């Protein structure tokens, strides 16, 4: 991991997401979107990292990201999903603008004896799988939208008695949510009822879970991050408890991402101001650690807490494997120094972007050098 | 920066009739609160009565979002204190450039002017090489030159303009550029410009060459130079005389530009004052004047030169601005005066707080004891941090500043952090993390309580419970459990089973919560038809005293179907205990004989229930005794 560039942008960043490349494209990622929070006026902005063709003689260059366009928004940007045509509307090839194409207001609201009717509740998570969009919020409600419909296609009221923090698709009609009492719930939209089809949780302290991500190739492997900074790997087919628990950060883990094309690599970022790269690939026995610049490297053993006697060992997933002697996960801290909370990160190919409460965006284009 | 003796602007407050009523006001960190009273001028005895409240935000360009970078990076440097002064300078410089752009882009020209004057004021003072002990060793003049060059950033754009044009020496600003370069002591660059002129107009080539030679041979101080001061002075004197000679010989007579350049290099005050526009301020004038008339000036003499430069430059036309007072105090090396002037002149504490902190670390500041016990550095930092907290998003920086105030920092933080508005849970989580890292358990508790209460009002009982668990707040957990139990009594079934079924060790937080969990477990066990377990669980609920008294009747009624089962579930011992509970319950209840028919009906129901229970218990007891007796017998 060579260079990582920081730029101060005068807004606290709550979410960063790469703009996906068209399928089959060989380019590296160039554009990303950010959402800000906690200001009186927040912005959804689109940035481009320029052409890095010119190198100075000493190999250093100004890796500045440029603002392409932005749009004002009232309220914190809680989550962001970027699709080729959702959120961003290109008006011509050379000029990109952001405009509000469609708004679903009052998607999330509170009703209760003490609250006035329809006092709005923050929406905490969004995931989309064209053309469907699923949102979850602090009101414990799950909404399913379609891009062309004015109203929600399906709403599950009171899906959860606590706040739903994040949502992800498992298989197309199934979603997985995590909540603030430490449970994962799987919902199947094919079923009519308002009950989850499966609930998984830890025994022990009900630590709130803040983020979730599914393995890109193996749809039963899911990673979650919790309020105590613990990273858990779950197998949703087997039992109701996680496969491994890894002590990670010292404070809330805000986001966890499997790398979309190299799923043996996992990335987490946290309130304690660090961003970690977890490398579970087991092909190279000896790894040279010389070029990890500025970061701490440490090796952790994964320790499993349940006896997965039924797991077929032929299903190779380095995350699920339970043999501590064989599996070593290498962890690298990617940011050069501790900052305020790292709120969000995203990876695409060899590129990583993350945003912090210190109003900085960090970008690297050489994740696996 | 406001002119202290200018006319203040008048703002009319809508909706207030100033003829009839008086207003009162109070200052906040960045705002002013004004309200109308019902005092009128005639009747002084009328009571104070609140009708309108107006909140005015004072114009604070330093809170403009482009200046956030300044706050953030200063915060970063503040915490680390590594190579501080240079870092601060580069940050300020970058911000200054951005603010220039903001000023240009500002729609309202008045506010644009204010922006630029504010920023200019602050940056000038920051960039001043104020205190010799902070600087690396070296002659004063070099640092002053450095300062001037950093401060005036228009030169670069002008130079880019001129050099980028097709024929630089014919550019209209060419001579301006050369003059500015000479005024700033950048003689090498001036020489390069002159060589371009020499190339294009052979007539003046000779003069340009001579001028270039003069520029090249000017003796300058440099840090690596091993000459002594006396040597340097001699050489400089010699050079000065050479320039004088060229001027007397009218070498440059045919080119007025070159002639004025020569006069400038001789330190001729009249020539310098002619370039007032290019110099643009008196301290630039001061430095140039020193460069060309007394390059080996000592820090002690600086103030005299400064005063005379100020007078000459202003020429009696205008009076010194507050910024000038700050600089004068700086040149006199009077630290306290500088801080005092800055505090008066600048609209927020950002600059003063950081400066004082720097000086304190360099041990240059004698600490005064202010009347509430902390020293000046801490006082200023507290003020600045409080100002940060008043801002919607800069509060996170304020936390770190409070951490560095040893006496009153923690108390101030405790007060401020409870008052941050929490719109979303994510923000609340960040605030709580800050409190927990500093062991502020009281604040954690109170914030969680507020959030839990909001959740209860919104019917989010699961959220409420998770907040009480985080705060380890048993009382609130009891409240939430009571809510659940009440819902159960009203509806006959539990809501939010996903929560109650999975309480885990959090159940131990409060008795009521434990009861709730165990009661739900009873229902579940009963549902699985494990009657013996259900029975013992039910009994333990009653005998262990965690069930609230009001619930006992419900529990006993739940026991009825178990008593009525074909097989004997409750043992004799257990039945005795159940009877005991029933007696406890009924003995405590007074018998109502009121006229209210509803009450009578309720009583009837109660009595029927009790009787049924007694009957069931008696029957069960009988069967239990028989069964136990026969088992023992066999």
Proportion in β-strands of chain B: under 5%
Q: CATH superfamily assignment of chain A? A: YVTN repeat-like/Quinoprotein amine dehydrogenase
Distance between the termini of chain A: 6 Å
Number of extended strands of chain B: 3
Computed Rg of chain A: 21 Å
**What order do the strands of the largest sheet of chain A run in, or round the barrel if closed?**
18-19-20-21-26
Quaternary organisation of the protein chains: heterodimer
Q: State the helix count of chain B.
A: 30
CATH top level assignment of chain A: Mainly Beta
Radius of gyration of chain B: 42 Å
Helix amount of chain B, in percent? 55-70%
| Secondary structure category of chain B | mainly alpha
Q: pLDDT average of chain B, as an integer? A: 77
Quick one: which chains have the greatest interface? A-B, 51 and 38 residues
What's the CATH topology label of chain A?
Methylamine Dehydrogenase, Chain H
What do you see in this structure?
- Chain B: Its main location: nucleus.
- The complex is a heterodimer of chains A (369) and B (634).
- Chain A has 369 residues and is an all-beta fold.
- Chain A has one domain (5-280, 315-364): Methylamine Dehydrogenase, Chain H (7 Propeller).
- Chain A is 0% helix and 42% strand.
- In chain A, a hairpin with a 4-residue loop joins strand 14 and strand 15.
- Chain A is globular, with a radius of gyration of 21 Å.
- Chain B is an all-alpha fold.
- Among the domains of chain B are: 23-58, no CATH class; 139-335, no CATH class; 423-512; 529-587 and 601-633.
- A 3-stranded antiparallel beta sheet of chain B has the order 1-2-3, with no helix packed on it.
- The interface between A and B is large, with 51 and 38 residues.
Search tags:
heterodimer; A: 369 residues; mainly beta; 5-stranded antiparallel β-sheet; 30 strands; B: 634 residues; mainly alpha; rod-shaped; disordered N terminus
């Amino acid at each position: 991991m060579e260079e990582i560039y920081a730029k101060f942008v005068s807004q606290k960043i709550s979410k960063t997401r790469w703009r996906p490349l068209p399928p089959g494209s060989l380019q590296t990622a160039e554009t990303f979107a950010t959402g800000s929070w906690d200001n009186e006026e927040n912005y959804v902005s689109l940035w481009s990292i320029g052409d890095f063709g010119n190198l100075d003689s000493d190999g250093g260059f100004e890796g500045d990201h440029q603002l392409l366009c932005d749009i004002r928004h009232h309220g914190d940007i809680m989550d962001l999903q970027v699709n080729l045509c959702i959120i961003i509307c290109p008006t011509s090839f050379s000029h990109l603008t952001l405009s509000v194409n469609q708004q679903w207001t009052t998607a999330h609201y509170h009703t209760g004896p003490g609250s006035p009717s329809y006092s709005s509740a923050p929406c905490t998570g969004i995931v989309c799988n064209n053309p469907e969009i699923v949102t979850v919020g602090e009101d414990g409600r799950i909404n399913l939208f379609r891009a062309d419909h004015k109203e929600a296609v399906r709403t599950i009221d009171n899906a959860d008695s606590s706040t739903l923090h994040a949502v992800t698709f498992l298989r197309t009609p199934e979603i997985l949510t995590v909540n603030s009492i430490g449970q994962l719930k799987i919902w199947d939209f094919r079923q009519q009822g308002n009950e989850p089809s499966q609930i998984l949780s830890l025994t022990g302290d009900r630590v709130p879970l803040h983020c979730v991500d599914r393995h890109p190739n193996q749809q039963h492997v899911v990673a979650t991050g919790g309020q105590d900074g613990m990273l858990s790997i779950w197998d949703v087919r087997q039992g109701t408890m996680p496969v491994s628990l890894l002590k990670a950060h010292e404070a809330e883990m805000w986001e966890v991402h499997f790398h979309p094309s190299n799923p043996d690599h996992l990335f987490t970022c946290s309130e304690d101001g660090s961003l970690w790269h977890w490398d579970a690939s087991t092909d190279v026995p000896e790894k040279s650690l010389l070029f990890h610049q500025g970061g701490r490297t440490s090796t952790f053993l994964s320790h499993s807490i349940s006896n997965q006697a039924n797991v077929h060992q032929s299903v190779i997933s380095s995350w699920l494997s339970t043999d501590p002697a064989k599996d070593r996960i290498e962890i690298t801290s990617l940011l050069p120094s501790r900052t305020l909370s790292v709120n969000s990160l995203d990876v695409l190919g060899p590129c990583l972007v993350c945003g912090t409460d210190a109003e900085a965006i960090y970008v690297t284009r050489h994740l696996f050098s | 920066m406001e002119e202290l003796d200018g006319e203040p602007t008048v703002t009319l407050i809508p909706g207030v009739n100033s003829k009839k009523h008086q207003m009162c006001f109070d200052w906040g960190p960045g705002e002013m609160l004004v309200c109308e009273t019902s005092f009128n001028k005639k009747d002084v005895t009328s009571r104070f009565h609140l009708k309108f409240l107006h909140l005015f935000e004072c114009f604070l360009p330093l809170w403009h979002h482009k200046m956030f970078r300044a706050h953030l990076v200063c915060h970063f440097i503040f915490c680390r204190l590594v190579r501080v002064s240079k870092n601060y300078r580069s940050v300020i410089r970058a911000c200054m450039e951005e603010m220039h752009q903001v000023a240009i882009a500002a729609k309202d020209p008045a506010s644009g002017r204010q922006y630029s004057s504010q920023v200019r004021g602050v940056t000038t003072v920051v960039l001043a090489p104020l205190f010799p002990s902070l600087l690396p060793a070296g002659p004063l003049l070099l640092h002053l030159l450095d300062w001037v060059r950093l401060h005036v950033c228009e030169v670069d754009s002008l130079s880019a303009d001129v050099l980028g044009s097709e024929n630089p020496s014919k550019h209209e600003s060419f001579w301006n550029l050369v003059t500015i370069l000479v005024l700033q002591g950048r003689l090498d660059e001036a020489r390069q410009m002159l060589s371009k002129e020499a190339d294009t107009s052979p007539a003046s080539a000779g003069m340009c060459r001579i001028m270039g030679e003069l520029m090249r041979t000017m003796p300058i101080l440099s840090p690596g130079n091993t000459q002594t001061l006396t040597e340097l002075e001699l050489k400089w004197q010699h050079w000065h005389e050479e320039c004088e000679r060229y001027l007397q010989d009218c070498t440059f007579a045919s080119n007025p530009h070159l002639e004025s350049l020569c006069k400038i290099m001789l330190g001729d005050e009249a020539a310098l004052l002619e370039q007032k526009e290019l110099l643009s301020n008196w301290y630039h004038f001061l430095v140039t004047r020193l460069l060309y008339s007394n390059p080996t000036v000592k820090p002690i003499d600086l103030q005299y030169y400064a005063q005379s430069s100020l007078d000459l430059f202003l020429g009696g036309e205008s009076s010194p601005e507050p910024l000038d007072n700050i600089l004068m105090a700086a040149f006199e090396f009077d630290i306290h005066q500088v801080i005092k002037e800055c505090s008066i002149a600048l609209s927020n504490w950002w600059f003063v707080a950081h400066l004082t902190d720097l000086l304190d670390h360099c041990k240059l500041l004698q600490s005064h004891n202010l009347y509430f016990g902390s020293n000046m550095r801490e006082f200023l930092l507290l003020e600045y941090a409080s100002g940060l907290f008043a801002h919607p998003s800069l509060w996170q920086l304020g936390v770190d500043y409070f951490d560095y105030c040893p006496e009153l920092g923690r108390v101030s933080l405790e007060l401020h952090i409870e008052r941050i508005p929490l719109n979303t849970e994510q923000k609340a989580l960040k605030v709580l993390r800050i409190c927990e890292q500093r062991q502020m358990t009281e604040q954690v508790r109170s914030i969680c309580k507020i959030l839990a209460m909001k959740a209860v009002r919104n019917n989010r009982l699961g959220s409420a419970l998770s907040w009480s668990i985080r705060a380890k707040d048993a009382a609130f957990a009891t409240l939430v459990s009571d809510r659940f139990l009440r819902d159960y009594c009203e509806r006959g079934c539990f809501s939010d089973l996903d929560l109650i079924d999975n309480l885990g060790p959090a159940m131990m937080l409060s008795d009521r919560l434990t009861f709730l969990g165990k009661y739900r477990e009873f229902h579940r066990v009963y549902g699985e038809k494990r009657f013996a377990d259900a029975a013992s669980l039910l009994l333990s609920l009653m005998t262990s005293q965690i069930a609230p008294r009001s619930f006992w009747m419900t529990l006993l009624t739940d026991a009825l179907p178990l008593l009525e089962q074909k097989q004997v579930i409750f043992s004799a011992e257990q039945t005795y205990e159940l009877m005991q509970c029933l007696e406890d319950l009924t003995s405590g209840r007074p018998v109502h004989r009121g006229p209210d028919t509803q009450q009578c009906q309720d009583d009837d129901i109660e009595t029927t229930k009790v009787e049924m229970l007694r009957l069931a218990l008696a029957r069960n007891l009988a069967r239990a005794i028989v069964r136990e007796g026969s088992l023992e017998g066999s």
